[in-house]
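Table S2 (text version). Query chain:
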Amino acid sequence: MRNFLETGRLVLRAFTEADAGHLLALDGDPDVMRFINGGRPTDREAIESHTVPRLLRSYPCLGGRGYWAAEEKVTGTFLGWFEFRPLAEHSPAVVELGYRLNKAAWGSGYATEGSRALIDKGFTGLGVERVTANTMAVNARSRRVMEKAGLSFVRSFTGDWPEVIEGSEHGEVEYELTRPDWQRRRQEPAAAVRPGPRTAERAGLRACGVPGRAED
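Corresponding structure-token output:
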């Protein structure tokens, strides 16, 4: 099935080799790559030899792919991609959520919309028990998407960075959403759903001069 999921504004579909050009433009934007490798564009050879095969890989335990191209439903414009990939080869119990969107799509709520839809599909039809997501501690935009998608802060940790980039000295953060928490939130009246408390860890980041930013 080419189209995996549709939301009010998005279509998530399987990647093809013909998407290499879209991916080259996406990973060629220094702002998009800021928290990936410090802003260094990815060249075509790397896109074709590494990125495309990674995004085409199938995960039978989830019944399909682990990465999905995101298009605007009305125009068909390529916006980027979402990751919903099992961490264990033969089990859908724990999946990693991720997203990478074109800069033009930032601030429009697409990342939150796609993430919520994937989470709901995972818990209702794919056998997922826990969704996890990681990002750099200073990546306030990505962290806000995780929170709006329903994930909660779990821990800070120091990753094994192949090269030091600006902000990596603050480490990384992990967020998660379990099936019981997801079910509980779905049963709560809308008025009872409140944002989670800001953690001391996040307050510490602000004290270190890391700005918070409004997210989509």
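Notes on Table S2: The first strand starts at residue 3 and ends at 6. The mean pLDDT is 88.
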